[in-house]
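User: Let's play a game. I give you a shape written as tokens, and you guess the letters that built it. Ready? Here's round one.
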């Protein structure tokens, strides 16, 4: 599968993975699910769940670094700006042979179009925040988040996962 096929699947993920409502308890449950998944897989990641302007859950798993938190912040800024997954936007820019800096004039110190941050959307309302993971290769960061969202929203992950590389 190529970029075009991945982008179709990511669009489907973004359309389907929406909460009926989202609050602090929802953030806690999602963050704890991601933490449990990361520990079970020995994934050295940080987990960042936020409503725009408010950090709701943060966790650093053993082996993660302060730089992972910075990457998560920059990826979350992409979701806040574009209301799209950071991986989806990154693949789209790659397909068009451009970058955030070239296309939008955005500083790379503040924005990263790399996999791992996904919009937190409420059905019928729109995007209200983001969930980010950083510490794995970008495709794996993205898929860890999607898998956790599928569990939280009772969607079939097998229907929404990206194919293996």
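Assistant: Ready! My guess for every position:
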């Amino acid at each position: 599968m190529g970029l075009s096929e991945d982008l179709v699947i990511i669009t489907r993920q973004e359309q389907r993975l929406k909460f009926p409502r989202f609050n602090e308890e929802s953030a806690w449950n999602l963050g704890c699910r991601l933490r449990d998944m990361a520990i079970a897989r020995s994934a050295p990641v940080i987990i960042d769940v936020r409503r725009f302007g408010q950090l709701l859950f943060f966790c650093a798993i053993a082996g993660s670094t302060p730089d992972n938190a910075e990457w998560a912040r920059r990826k979350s800024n992409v979701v806040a700006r574009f209301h799209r997954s950071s991986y989806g936007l990154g693949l789209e820019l790659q397909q068009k042979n451009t970058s955030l800096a070239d296309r939008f004039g955005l500083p790379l110190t503040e924005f990263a179009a790399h996999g791992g941050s996904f919009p937190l959307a409420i059905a019928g309302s729109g995007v209200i925040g983001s969930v980010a993971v950083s510490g794995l290769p970008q495709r794996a960061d993205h898929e860890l988040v999607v898998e956790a969202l599928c569990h939280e929203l009772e969607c079939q992950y097998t229907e929404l996962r990206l194919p293996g590389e």
